[in-house]
């Protein structure tokens, strides 16, 4: 069954047809790497789905790796780190002690992909605290 996608960028619209859902998702993922527009996906017998960023696409192993390479993530990560004061939100350990800091998703991306770029869902943790937290969304230290 074919899938149609309308890409919108700076007031211009382009519609493409794909042979499968998987091909449509793959193409949208590539398109969002270089564009800051939005896409609307049309599938048979379903409501159109508006996708405004790459992180709203279904998560798979390939996108899991690539998310952390996107401009949007890197810019947000830098902002969160600079606003943190250079210390862990939980234990207070800081970069002056050689501590490695991570920007952690409070609610994990695997369960809440729509919150991947929500600054309210991010916290700065040292490596030890972050690894100890794992995917436990109940542990919010901010």
Intertermini distance: 46 Å
> Which descriptor suits the 3D outline?
elongated
**How are strands sequenced across the largest beta sheet?**
2-1-3-4
Write down the overall mean pLDDT.
Answer: 86
Order of helices and strands: EEHEEHHEEH
Q: How would a textbook summarize the main sheet?
A: 4 strands, antiparallel
Low-pLDDT sequence parts: none
Mind telling me the C-alpha Rg?
18 Å
Structural class based on helices, strands and sheet pairing: alpha+beta
Helix proportion: 25-40%
Q: What's the tally of helices?
A: 4
Number of strands: 6
Strand content: 15-25%
How would you briefly describe this protein structure?
The chain has 142 residues and is α+β, with helices and mostly antiparallel strands. The chain contains 4 helices and 6 strands.
Descriptive terms for the model:
single chain, 142 residues, alpha+beta, four-stranded antiparallel sheet, two-stranded antiparallel sheet, 4 helices, 6 strands, 29% helix, elongated
Account of the 3D structure:
It is a single chain. The protein has 4 helices and 6 strands; from the N terminus they run ββαββααββα. It is an alpha+beta fold and 142 residues long. Strand 1 and strand 2 (12-18) form a beta hairpin.
């Amino acid at each position: 069954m074919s899938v149609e996608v309308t890409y919108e960028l700076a007031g211009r619209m382009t519609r493409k047809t794909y042979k499968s859902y998987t091909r449509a998702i793959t193409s949208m993922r590539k398109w969002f790497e270089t564009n800051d527009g939005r896409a609307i996906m049309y599938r048979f017998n379903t409501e159109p789905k508006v996708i405004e960023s790459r992180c709203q696409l279904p998560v798979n192993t390939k996108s899991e790796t690539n998310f952390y390479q996107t401009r949007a993530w890197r810019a947000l990560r830098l902002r969160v780190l600079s606003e943190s004061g250079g210390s862990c939100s939980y234990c207070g350990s800081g970069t002056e002690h050689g501590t490695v800091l991570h920007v952690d998703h409070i609610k994990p991306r695997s369960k809440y992909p729509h919150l991947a770029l929500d600054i309210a869902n991010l916290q700065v943790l040292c490596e030890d605290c972050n690894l100890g937290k794992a995917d436990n969304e109940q542990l919010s230290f901010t």
